[in-house]
Automatic annotation (TrEMBL):
<feature type="transmembrane region" description="Helical">
    <location>
        <begin position="62"/>
        <end position="84"/>
    </location>
</feature>
<dbReference type="GO" id="GO:0005886">
    <property type="term" value="C:plasma membrane"/>
</dbReference>
<protein>
    <submittedName>
        <fullName>Glycosyl transferase family 2</fullName>
    </submittedName>
</protein>
<feature type="transmembrane region" description="Helical">
    <location>
        <begin position="424"/>
        <end position="444"/>
    </location>
</feature>
<feature type="transmembrane region" description="Helical">
    <location>
        <begin position="363"/>
        <end position="386"/>
    </location>
</feature>
<keyword id="KW-1003">Cell membrane</keyword>
<keyword id="KW-0328">Glycosyltransferase</keyword>
<feature type="transmembrane region" description="Helical">
    <location>
        <begin position="392"/>
        <end position="412"/>
    </location>
</feature>
<keyword id="KW-0812">Transmembrane</keyword>
<dbReference type="Pfam" id="PF13641">
    <property type="entry name" value="Glyco_tranf_2_3"/>
</dbReference>
<dbReference type="GO" id="GO:0030213">
    <property type="term" value="P:hyaluronan biosynthetic process"/>
</dbReference>
<feature type="transmembrane region" description="Helical">
    <location>
        <begin position="21"/>
        <end position="42"/>
    </location>
</feature>
<keyword id="KW-0472">Membrane</keyword>
<dbReference type="GO" id="GO:0085029">
    <property type="term" value="P:extracellular matrix assembly"/>
</dbReference>
<keyword id="KW-0808">Transferase</keyword>
<dbReference type="GO" id="GO:0050501">
    <property type="term" value="F:hyaluronan synthase activity"/>
</dbReference>
<dbReference type="InterPro" id="IPR029044">
    <property type="entry name" value="Nucleotide-diphossugar_trans"/>
</dbReference>
Length: 457
């Protein structure tokens, strides 16, 4: 599906060295856990019935049942609506070279080493008219050999590439800001310096701006580059497909994709400059915002009344953490950004921010806000159940994972590969028991700054 290059070739070599028995053991263990949970739900049916009766007879049990039922029905309604929207979604086909707008591609980099070379070479190999593409790479004060590899790329690409070096590390937002200020294209494309694009990614990413004048931003389709190197990336790849190809397809039908990913996204220049100063000077609780620059830019473009779309045919492969420490830090950063931008979205989403339908944006906002609001109540209920009925909680949770995660498994299997789809089960088990604390922690620490994953291998 993707063009072979030095980076993907290296990944393939690593894959040969990874012991497949470990992955097979994890998958088998996952199924044993889930089916054991299902068996115990059956075996403990009298206990579940008694717990249900006891809850109904308690002062809090009946209200909790009503609340849980309402939330469940709402979530099911949202899911079915998303399923309907997904069935109607189609990516916009690439327009001709003559119709393609001029494009500035901005690649910010910090301590990426040779990875930035691979990124720039993949962009240079794009099936995009050279005379219409301006390629900028910005070293954000790296302490390794990132600048050297940018220089090597400059020697290789000549006038096709312009490189800049920040005098000191100021963060990704400031590196992008410099690119926006220097960019001459009608469309800005941002690509992370550890990502690889397909040859047709750029033209597919910018084509919606030509056919839809209301389009202010476009999200690319992110897959995991290092999915063959470790177990966590294998799991995340299935999760990413569900998040992007299902959820963002539905959001795109509503013209309200909530986040254009840093791995690959495109923005209309006028939309960017409509919020650029607000974006670069954004603060939260009196502190400058140094995270969530992609979600913030998306939010501010939506606020201007533009549509934000998703292009399933604009593939980009990006590296993800291979160890637990890097993964939970990445999720904390995303969680904090989600809290901040939901609060920002609340300020405009119920106003007349868009001339056409605002229902989609409002539905997505309400759905995300409900998840945040219910985080602590559900955490309390979970801890009480663990303390009072640990076996009932464990067995019902594992059965729930088996049921709920079957849709991502089916979705990935239909889109790509059956064998790899089963990692959705392992990811759900892992997330439920090892990362459940991320959301509550991110909420209470939303004011904290820091990228967190910088400096990790």
């Amino acid at each position: 599906m993707f063009r072979t290059n030095s980076k993907t070739a290296n990944a393939a070599k690593v894959n040969k060295r990874v012991a497949s028995p470990l992955g097979l053991t994890v998958l088998i263990g996952t199924f044993i856990l889930m089916f054991t949970g299902a068996y115990f739900v059956y075996a403990f049916k009298p206990d579940f019935d008694q717990l249900h009766i006891d809850r109904l007879n308690s002062a809090w049990g009946y209200p909790l049942l009503i609340l849980s039922s309402v939330l469940f029905l709402f979530q099911m309604g949202v899911f079915l609506y998303n399923l309907y929207l997904y069935s109607k979604y189609k990516p916009i086909e690439s327009v001709s070279d003559e119709l393609l707008p001029t494009c500035t591609v901005i690649v910010p980099a910090y301590n990426e080493g040779k990875l930035v070379w691979d990124t720039l070479m993949s962009l240079a190999d794009s099936d995009f008219p050279e005379q219409k593409m301006q390629l900028l790479a910005i070293d954000d004060g790296s302490k390794d050999d990132t600048w050297y590899w940018m220089q090597q790329a400059k020697i290789k690409l000549g006038d096709r590439l312009t490189i800049f070096q920040q005098p000191e590390n100021r963060g990704k937002r400031h590196a992008l800001y410099r690119g926006f200020e220097l960019g001459t294209g009608e469309i800005f494309v941002t690509v992370d310096s550890d990502s690889i694009v397909k040859p047709d990614t750029l033209r597919n990413l910018v084509s919606p701006f030509v056919v839809n004048e209301k389009c202010g931003a476009v999200a690319g389709n992110v897959h995991v580059l290092n999915s063959k190197k470790a177990l966590l990336p294998k799991m995340l790849n299935v999760s990413f497909v569900m998040s992007f190809e299902f959820m963002r397809s539905a959001e795109s039908m509503l013209g309200s994709v909530l986040c254009t990913p840093g791995a690959a996204a495109a923005y209309r220049k006028t939309a960017v400059f409509g919020c650029l100063e607000e974006w670069i000077n954004q603060t939260f609780m009196g502190q400058p915002s140094d995270i969530g620059e992609d979600r913030a830019m998306t939010n501010m473009i939506l606020k201007q009344g533009y549509h934000v779309l998703f292009q399933r045919n604009a593939y980009v492969l990006t590296n993800v953490p291979e160890e637990y420490t890097g993964l939970y830090k990445m999720f904390i950063r995303w969680g904090r950004s989600n809290v901040r931008e939901n609060l920002m979205m609340a300020k405009y989403v119920f106003k007349d921010f868009r001339k056409d339908s605002k229902f989609g944006a409002r539905l997505l906002f309400v759905n995300q806000s409900l998840r945040l609001v219910m985080t602590y109540p559900f955490l309390v209920v979970m801890l009480v159940l663990i303390a009072t009925h640990p076996l009932l909680f464990l067995s019902s949770t594992l059965l729930g994972i088996l049921i709920v995660s079957s849709f991502p498994v089916f979705f990935y299997a239909k889109r790509y590969n059956l064998a790899e789809s089963f990692w959705a089960y392992s990811y759900s088990v892992f997330y439920t028991f090892a990362l459940f604390w991320i959301a509550p922690y991110a909420i209470i620490t939303a004011n904290k700054r820091g990228w967190l994953t910088r400096g990790l291998a």
